[in-house]
C-alpha cells in the first residue's frame, strides 16, 4: 500500500510566513518527499473562500483558484492557479499524486441576503462569483423546491447547505470534479464533512467517467466521516454498493485508540486487538492517521511516534501529517528513529495479514505474514510495542519463520540504545524486545 501526506495544517501559510505562497512552498519540497517515498499529497481546498485569507473550508467561488479580485484579494491563502498547476506538474514528474479537498456541503460569503419563499426565512444565499461559474440563489440550498427540508445529513455551523437534488447544483458538482481531475490534473478526492450530505453524491462523483491523458481514469476517494465504527461501516456499505468498492474512510476509531496509547497512562494494549476500528474490519477501506488539521486541543501530546509506528506497519492507507513530519521534527530522515524509517519498511516489508502473536496490558507483538506477486515482494516483519515506561520489554513468540535472523530497522522510545538482532529457532520461536515507551520493527534477513 502507498503512503500519503496531508500537506498542510490549520493556518499553515500564515504561521510559516508563506501567505499566498503555499503551493510554491510545497513545490520546493517535492524532491525530498519523493526521496522519502511519499506517494500522494492531500492538498487543502483550492478555491476562493469567504475571505481570501481563509483556509478554504467555507467556499465561495469554486472556480476562482486565486485569479479574481474578490473576497478581499486576488490570491487564495495558498496561491493562484498557475502556481497550483506548477505544483501538480512537478509532483507528477516525481511520481507523487495529488488529492483535492472537496467541500461540497456548505458555502459561505454570499453577496446578498434573500428571503426563502418556502419558509419565509432570510438567509445569505445570493452568490455572484466573479468567475461566472455556479451562481447560486435560495433554491440552491436547503430548503429548496427540490427538497423542502434537509432530509440528508447534518448542518455545519450556520452556513447555507447545498441541495444536491437541485439539477443545477448536481451538474455544478460534476463540472467541478471534472475540472479538478481533467483540467488541473488531480488524482483523487478527500470529501470534507461527509456526514453532511447523502452518500449517493460521493458515489456518483466517484463513478463519473473521467478522462485523463486520453484514458478513462478512476480517482482515489476518501471521506471524512467523523464517527464511530458502526456508523462508518454502515456508510461504507451504502456508498460502495454503488461503486467498485473504491471509497475509503479516515479511521477515526483507530486514531482515538492510538491517542490513548500515547496520552493515557497505563492504557491496556489489548484494546488494540479488538474489532473496534475500520482497519480491523475493512482494511482496504481504511485510511489511518495520527493527527490532522481539525484535532486542535485533542491532538496527541506524548510519544507520538508510538502511533505512527502502529499505522505504518499495519494494514490501511497511512496518512502522515505535515505538522508532525516537519514542525514536530518526526520525519528524522537518515535515522532509524523517525517516520522516514517507518515509510521505508512500510513499502519494503509490510505485506500480508497482520497476525497478533502476543498482547497483554503493556506489550503488543504482531507479525505481517508477507506478500509476493509479480510486481511486489514484501517479506513481512515483526512489530513490538512496549507500553512500560521504565524498561525494555519483550517476550518469546512463535513466528512463521524458522531458523531466521531478524534485523531491527526502525525503532524509537525512551532509551536510545540500538536493539540487537534476533534469530528464531527450528520452531520459529524468538524473543523480540522494544525500548521503554517505544517500538521496534524487525525484518527477516535471508542470506
Could you characterize the architecture of this molecule?
This is Alpha-amylase domain-containing protein. It holds the Pfam family Alpha-amy_C_pro. It comes from Acidicapsa dinghuensis. By secondary structure, this protein is an alpha/beta fold. The chain has two domains: about 5-250, TIM Barrel (Alpha-Beta Barrel); about 355-445, Golgi alpha-mannosidase II (Immunoglobulin-like, Sandwich). The protein has twelve helices and 24 strands. The chain has helices spanning about 10-15, 20-25, 30-35, 80-95, 165-185, 200-205, 230-240, 250-265, 280, 305-315, 320-325, 340-350; strands at about 5, 40, 50, 60, 95-100, 110-115, 120-125, 190, 210, 215, 220-225, 245-250, 285, 320, 355-360, 365-370, 370, 375-380, 380-385, 395-400, 405-410, 420-425, 430-435, 440-445. The strands form seven sheets. An eight-stranded parallel beta sheet has the order 13-12-11-8-5-2-1-14. Strands 15-16-19-24-21-22 form a six-stranded antiparallel beta sheet. Strands 3-4 form a two-stranded antiparallel sheet. Helix 6 (about 200-205) crosses helix 7, helix 8 (about 250-265) packs across helix 10 and helix 10 (about 305-315) runs parallel beside helix 12 (about 340-350). The protein is elongated.
Amino acid at each position: 500500500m502507498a503512503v500519503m501526506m496531508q500537506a498542510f495544517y490549520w493556518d499553515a501559510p500564515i504561521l510559516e510566513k508563506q501567505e499566498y505562497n503555499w503551493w510554491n512552498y510545497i513545490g520546493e519540497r517535492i524532491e525530498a518527499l519523493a526521496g522519502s517515498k511519499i506517494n500522494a499529497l492531500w492538498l487543502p481546498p483550492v478555491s476562493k473562500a469567504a475571505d481570501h485569507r481563509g483556509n478554504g473550508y467555507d467556499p465561495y467561488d469554486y472556480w476562482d483558484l486565486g485569479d479574481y479580485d474578490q473576497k478581499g484579494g486576488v490570491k487564495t491563502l495558498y496561491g493562484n492557479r498557475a502556481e497550483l498547476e506548477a505544483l501538480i506538474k512537478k509532483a507528477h514528474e516525481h511520481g507523487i499524486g495529488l488529492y483535492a479537498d472537496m467541500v461540497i456541503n456548505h458555502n459561505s460569503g454570499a453577496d446578498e441576503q434573500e428571503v426563502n419563499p418556502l419558509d419565509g426565512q432570510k438567509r445569505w444565499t445570493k452568490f455572484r462569483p466573479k468567475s461566472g461559474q455556479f451562481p447560486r440563489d435560495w433554491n440552491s440550498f436547503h430548503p429548496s423546491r427540490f427538497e423542502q427540508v434537509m432530509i440528508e445529513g447534518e448542518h455545519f455551523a450556520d452556513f447555507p447547505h447545498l441541495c444536491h437534488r437541485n439539477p443545477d447544483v448536481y451538474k455544478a458538482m460534476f463540472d467541478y470534479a471534472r475540472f479538478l481531475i481533467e483540467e488541473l490534473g488531480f488524482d483523487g478526492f478527500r470529501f470534507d464533512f461527509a456526514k453532511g450530505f447523502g452518500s449517493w453524491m460521493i458515489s456518483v462523483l466517484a463513478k463519473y467517467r473521467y478522462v485523463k491523458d486520453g484514458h478513462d481514469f478512476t480517482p482515489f476517494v476518501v471521506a471524512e466521516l467523523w464517527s464511530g465504527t458502526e456508523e462508518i461501516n454502515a456508510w461504507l456499505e451504502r456508498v460502495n454498493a454503488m461503486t467498485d468498492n473504491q471509497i475509503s474512510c479516515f479511521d477515526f476509531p483507530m486514531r482515538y485508540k492510538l491517542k490513548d496509547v500515547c496520552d493515557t497512562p497505563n492504557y491496556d494494549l489489548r484494546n488494540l486487538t479488538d474489532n473496534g476500528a475500520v482497519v480491523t474490519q475493512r482494511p482496504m477501506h481504511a485510511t489511518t492517521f495520527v493527527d490532522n488539521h481539525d484535532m486542535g486541543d485533542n491532538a496527541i501530546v506524548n510519544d507520538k511516534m508510538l502511533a505512527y509506528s502502529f499505522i505504518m506497519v499495519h494494514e490501511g492507507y497511512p496518512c502522515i501529517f505535515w505538522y508532525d513530519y516537519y514542525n514536530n521534527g518526526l520525519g528524522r530522515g537518515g535515522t532509524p528513529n523517525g517516520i522516514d524509517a517507518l515509510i521505508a519498511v512500510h513499502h519494503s516489508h509490510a505485506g500480508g495479514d497482520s497476525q497478533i502473536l502476543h498482547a497483554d496490558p503493556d506489550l503488543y507483538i504482531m507479525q505481517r505474514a508477507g506478500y509476493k506477486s509479480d510486481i511486489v515482494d514484501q517479506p513481512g516483519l515483526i512489530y513490538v510495542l512496549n507500553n512500560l515506561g521504565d524498561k525494555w520489554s519483550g517476550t518469546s513468540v512463535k513466528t512463521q519463520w524458522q531458523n531466521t535472523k531478524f534485523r531491527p530497522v526502525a525503532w524509537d522510545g525512551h532509551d536510545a540504545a540500538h536493539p540487537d538482532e534476533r534469530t528464531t529457532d527450528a520452531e520459529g520461536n524468538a524473543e523480540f524486545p522494544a525500548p521503554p515507551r517505544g517500538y521496534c520493527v524487525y525484518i527477516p534477513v535471508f542470506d
